[in-house]
Design brief:
- The chain is about 45% helix and about 15% strand.
- The protein is of the alpha/beta class.
- Helix 7 links the parallel strand 5 and strand 6.
- The protein is globular, with a radius of gyration of 26 Å.
Length: about 425
């Protein structure tokens, strides 16, 4: 049964603690990366046979395989994915940044140019569930940014095939190339390249502990989006909420992972009791009931706060991946929320809207990192260069100031570089 606490009556360590995995995969992942660097495709094919039970003759998904998969996915589902893709595109298109130029001083031009990252690797999980939504959420912002090549990797099933819905989503989103591989070995292939797999500049997308560790180890060789942990949801709810609705929303993330975190913060002891009872009633009915049960037992919490303002402060301390504000007047609280990945406003906005359809991204900061990081966006797929131009006259006006600054830092060559031009001009005169 979910644990219930009264905020202020128990220690912070009880309220804010969380069960986290203790398995250290660092050395395993390091060995896998080294093998892929040394042996390329041969290593990847061996790992596919070992981990996925798939004996492959080649790694890349053919155009024929994509078309076959697209043809067998239900037309209704393809239509829904198309609708979702349009919503995702419309939201992320607003995030595009433009280059700028400043020319406010005579003889001085400064500015910034925005350029797309050239090659991006997209990791899409397989295993216990397939997530075509992740394909849309990760690929569409990259397409908007203008990335020239988007390379997707995802583990095959034992028959050597990729889930048709994943391939259909890739076709809808505009993925350029797809490879049958998963795990740390796929991250290594994207980071260093193999005979078949192109080396990319950035890797995005969630995965298990091995994928997360591999991304950590290759960071610096390539860029990464974030190190994603288990899923999280926090619901802030007042006493007028329906307990079954709140419980179901909590379970929408609990069913993801045994270590997922589902937390309710409410100002109503009665709602807390009703939600606890609803969870026990609903969990056995779920297709992933064992996972949801473990998640609720490991990291499920109900926190009773004296009022909703305090509930929002609890949310700011936890900085959840998903935050539902289940009250009648949610916009009264929006300005008070400082730390959250994605915020779902009001009683008619289940987190699932964000996972699949509404448009904002579902690749979000976890494990409290919403305190300093942001959802995946178009910004993740661009880089910026700055430029500076001074005329001879403009430089002469400031060169002594620059030289003085440089000398204060003990850098005499810096200082000389600022004044040498004007000195040579004086000497010639």
């Amino acid at each position: 049964m979910i644990k219930t606490y009264k905020y202020g009556e128990v220690s912070d360590s009880e309220i804010f603690s969380r069960v986290v995995p203790e398995v250290d995969v660092t050395s395993i992942v390091s060995d896998i990366i080294a093998n892929v660097r040394a042996n390329g495709d041969k290593a990847i094919l061996a790992y596919c046979e070992r981990f996925d039970k798939a004996k492959l003759s080649s790694l890349e998904v053919s155009e024929a395989e994509i078309e076959e998969a697209y043809s067998i996915v239900e037309p209704e589902f393809k239509e829904i994915m198309e609708k979702a893709a349009k919503n995702i595109y419309a939201f992320h298109k607003r995030q595009v940044r433009n280059s700028f130029v400043i020319n406010e001083q005579d003889g001085v031009v400064i500015g910034q140019k925005v350029e797309p990252i050239e090659k991006v690797g997209l990791y899409v999980p397989g295993g216990t569930a397939a997530y075509p939504s992740s394909v849309l959420m990760n690929c569409i912002p990259a397409k908007i940014a203008g990335c020239s090549e988007i390379v997707m990797v995802t583990p095959p099933s034992a028959d050597g095939k990729i889930n048709p819905a994943i391939l259909a989503a890739a076709k809808i989103a505009g993925v350029d190339r797809i490879f049958k591989m998963g795990g740390a070995q796929a991250v290594a292939a994207l980071a260093y390249g193999t005979e078949s797999v192109p080396k990319v500049d950035k890797i995005v997308g969630p995965g298990n502990a091995f994928v997360a560790e591999a991304k950590r180890q290759v960071f610096g060789i390539v860029a990464i989006d974030m190190i994603a942990g288990p899923s999280e949801i926090m619901v802030v709810a007042d006493g007028s909420c329906d307990a079954d609705v709140v419980a179901t929303d909590l379970l929408s993330q609990a069913e993801h992972d045994r270590l997922a975190s589902a937390v309710l913060v409410t100002d109503s002891e009665e709602l807390a009791k009703e939600v606890s009872e609803a969870l026990e009633r609903i969990i056995p009915t779920l297709s992933r009931s064992e996972i949801a049960r473990a998640s609720i037992d490991n990291n499920g919490k109900i926190i009773v706060a004296k009022d909703l303002d305090l509930a929002i402060e609890v949310a700011n301390r936890i900085a959840p991946e998903h935050l539902e504000v289940c009250v009648d007047n949610p916009f009264d609280y929006l300005s008070k929320i400082r730390n959250a990945g994605s915020i779902f406003m009001g009683k008619n906005c289940p987190e699932a809207l964000g996972d699949y359809f509404a448009g904002p991204n579902h690749t979000l900061p976890t494990s409290g990192t919403a305190r300093f990081s942001s959802p995946l966006s178009v910004d993740d797929f661009v880089k910026k260069s700055q430029f500076t131009y001074y005329t001879e006259e403009a430089l002469s006006k400031v060169c002594e100031d620059v030289a003085y600054f440089a000398k204060k830092e003990g850098l005499t060559a810096h200082a000389a570089s600022a004044v040498v031009r004007s000195e040579k001009k004086k000497n010639k005169a």
